[in-house]
Amino acid sequence: MITTRILMLSPDTSTAAAVRATPRPMLSHVCTTLLVVLGLLAFVGLSPLQTQAQEVDITPGIKGGVNFADLGGDDAELIFDGGGSGDFEIPIEARTGIVAGGFALIDFDGPFALQPEVLYVQKGAKVEIEFLEETASSTLKLDYIEVPVLAKFQIPLEGSIAPNIFAGPAVAFNITAEQEGEGPDGSETTDLSEVISTTDFGLQVGAGVDFDAGPGTIMLDARYELGLSSIPSEGDADIKNQGIRITAGFGF
Questions:
Q1: Contact at 8 Å (CB) between 165 and 151?
Q2: Which pLDDT value is given to residue 183?
Q3: 3-state secondary structure 7-49
Q4: How many angstroms separate the first and last alpha carbons of the chain?
Q5: Which one of 20, 73, 208, 223 has the minimum C-beta count within 10 Å?
Q6: 177-198: per-residue pLDDT in tens?
Q7: Domain residues of the chain, as ranges?
Q8: What percent of the chain lies above the pLDDT cut of 90?
Q9: 16-251 adopts what CATH topology?
Q10: From the centroid of its chain, how far is CA 209?
Q11: Separation of CA 116 from chain center
Q12: For residue 249, is pLDDT > 90?
């Protein structure tokens, strides 16, 4: 029989130790949800805006897509361990998750624009191992409410197509942290909310293309996220979120 479990590096030793945690208080989930709802309502409620000094168009919109989440950092390979001993490493695979939320494109008079977003993003990673003709898998599920603020350069072209490149920081607030293991004897879910940091910081870079679509704009983009902060809430382990995401959106 084989089992697979998630292991966080201990703050006091160089070996890995299995962790279990208790759920976060419900109040934090309620507050986070309210903030997201208010943010999305504010985005949707925005309308084109003009100032006397400079013309500024604010376009609210919605978007969704897929996130191929992975882990980076010097200690990322140690977060999964077959027996908790740290004697061997298991290749980490990407967790495929969803991205959904809203944005506001603040378009200045020229090629530059600012695009803040409020997104629900599924991050994490997974592994799958085989031992003695048995297979087990373990998935680290980290879900966040993420707020990127992107500086966008729109490449001037004639016609209805507008390619762009963008980059900017992102802060994310963890709302779910758990490990789901599956093996020949069944499945087990372990809550990790007390050992995963509630706040995560990253840098996002990418490119996209916008298409005029009658009353609105279709927006496609692909981006890479580089984690800047370690996801364990304690200790010196260097384990960061990273990933590639592809999204499609519509600006009203």
A1: no
A2: 82
A3: EEECCCCCCEEECCCCCCCHHHHHHHHHHHHHHHHHHHHCCCE
A4: 55
A5: 20
A6: 999 988 888 889 999 999 999 9
A7: 16-251
A8: 56
A9: Porin (2.40.160)
A10: 21
A11: 15
A12: yes
